[in-house]
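In this section we walk through a basic example: taking a raw amino acid sequence and producing a predicted 3D structure, encoded as discrete structure tokens. The instruction is simple. Fold the sequence below.
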Amino acid sequence: MEGLNQIFWGNTLYAYVIALGIIVVGLVVLRIVKSIILHRLRKWAEKTVNTVDDFLISVIDRAIMPALYISVIYGGIHYLTLPDKVAGGLRGVLVLVNTFFVLRVLTMVIEYSLISYLKKRHYADPKRSEVKGVLMIVNLVLWCIAIVFLLDNFGYNVTTIITSLGIGGVAIALASQNILSDLFCYFVIFFDRPFEIGDAILVGDKSGTVMEIGVKTTRIRSTSGEEMIFSNKALTDSRIHNFKRMEKRRIAFILDVVYETPAEVIEEIPALLTEIITAQEGVAFDRAHFASYGAYSLKFEVVYNVLTGDYNKYMDIHQAINFAIFRAFAERNIQFAYPTQTILNAGN
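The resulting token sequence is shown next.
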């Protein structure tokens, strides 16, 4: 026992043994917690429907457990009598590490909240790429706050720093109004969701598919193949047609029939058109009428809705209706009219 009372670098050998014991026992306990308890919790979470428990286990595994490992090591070392500079340095390292893990937890919470928000708004399978811009800005703000906090803990006068940052921030804001405007519009696009990646949209006379939504610009692949780049402000200031969210398409067209068609056949045409259109699946018939007398034809107006936003499906249905009308008119000898002018010569 006398050997344990020998002093090395200001501490007895017994103190070193105790410090080592604290570290070893603490690490072993945490290892058991992670390999047994946390493992069982993860297995249990896989059987549940909600994702909250999976998220909490992920936070514990990625942030809380590493912080506890470092805290155990610090606790063992802190048991020893250390020089003031060494003890102060260790405290600074502990504050720095704990601040990092606190920021990690906050970032994970914000990311999970954003993804949950997108799912709640019925945007299926939101990808991390959709929120990376928001997370980048959030991380920047959090790290600025964390740096001020660390400087305050290290004894610096943060009041002067904050004042300087405020003045500098105003100057930067004035010098980069366009960038900040696009940044603000990015948040508008993110939360209001007028479109998302993969949507087919029309902006002015430009149409294409949204490929990427960035912090400042949005990239759209045009129907002719080239990549178009719009500033976010230009998009939010424009009238956007989003074809992907189209639930139905309204079709209205005119059929021109020759004046020589018998009256009884004219009376049958609206019912015939109604029968042809209602026979198609995925169609909501609206009306079919003898609408007016034209300059060279009798005009029948037909209106119906295709109950899908898929353009190819819409064209398939419209084509099938056109085929059926053409066939039915041919069977009944109903002639389509085309622009003609009849000149009657009365003679002398």
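Looking at the output, two observations stand out. The longest strand covers residues 283-293. The two ends are 147 Å apart (CA to CA). In the next section we compare this with other chains.
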